[in-house]
Amino acid sequence: MALSDRIPYVAQIDRPKLKLPGGKQLAVWIILNVEEWRIENAMPRTVLSPPMGQPLLPDVPNWSWHEYGMRAGFWRQFKALTERNIPVTLAINGNVCNSYPRVAGAALEAGFEFMGHGFLQGPMHKLDDQADAIKRAVDTISMFAGKPPRSWESPGLTETEATLDLLRLNGIEYVADWVIDDLPQEIATPHGTITTIPYSVETNDIVIHALQHLPSEQFLKRCTDQFDRLYLEGADNARVMAISIHPYITGVPHRIKYLEALLDHVISHDGVALMTASEIGDWYRAEMART
Questions:
Q1: Distances (CA, A) of 199 to 132, 155, 157, 203
Q2: Residue 175, helix vs strand vs coil
Q3: Contact 248, 65 (CB under 8 A)
């Protein structure tokens, strides 16, 4: 069976009518991704090409590009989010709890939901032992946060045929890897149901700035355009919008004001339900049980 066959096709127009809490029409969740890039390894992503095309290790400039986010950029985003009382889903490499306890500790104190995001940053299909890496991530987050993560976003949204089963085996209920609809969908595993939470590869600062190399203001424009249309559609049936951010991308000085403007646009609408991954998942399951 192909992996995609585990997720039956459902047309959006055939989805049942779902009601968000408080009569809201659009659920918005903010995903703040905090990762560990190991300087002795090739970088997961680069901003500078190697001199004369010869990759070198350690890759100081590209490691530093990301490290700036963990030292400076995170705190700009943290301020923007907490000052507006916005619930945050922290997609965290498990080992960030050990390597960046100042970051993880601030997020814990602020009440962010900890979402598993691998143990170290790297694709799932490159892991020597995927089962062990998932378990270590879940166990490390559980010990640090005092409770196990219920949600998961794989690094780079990568999966193998075994990933969903291993995630559910380790207690994960909600997964953000499947960017297939504006509403969640359930997937069967041998260990129980796992539910997709609508995510985005386009209202995502990595894609807009690190891959498509668009100007700083384009993050604001794309996300507000997405928000405005989903908000309109939500008057007929609930919708979910994800906004995914990274400290080294929209946490930098020349982009932070566009993130702040986006957050202000979102919270200025009365019909928005600001939620975390697990809150969306719990809401969806309860609504589907009602229909």
A1: 25, 13, 10, 9
A2: strand
A3: yes
Q: What percent of the chain has pLDDT over 90?
A: 95
Residues 77 and 250 sit within 8 Å (Cβ to Cβ): yes
pLDDT at 52 over 80: no
The answer to whether the bond into 184 is cis (omega within 30° of 0) is no
**Vertex 211 angle, CA 128 and 36, to 5°:** 40
Tokens 């796992």: give the residue. Answer: 194
Residue 70 CA from chain centroid, whole number: 16
Q: CA-CA-CA-CA torsion for 93, 96, 102, 105, nearest 10 degrees?
A: 60
For the chain, the domains span 18-44+55-290
* CA 270/CA 177 separation, integer angstroms: 29
Alpha carbon dihedral 192, 104, 241, 208, in 10-degree steps, equals -120
Classify domain 18-44+55-290 at the CATH topology level.
TIM Barrel (3.20.20)
User: With contact defined as beta carbons under 8 Å apart, do 151 and 172 qualify?
Assistant: yes
Residue 189 pLDDT more than 80?
Answer: yes
Residue at 208: amino acid letter: I
Strands 151-152 and 174-175: parallel
Residue 51: the pLDDT is 84
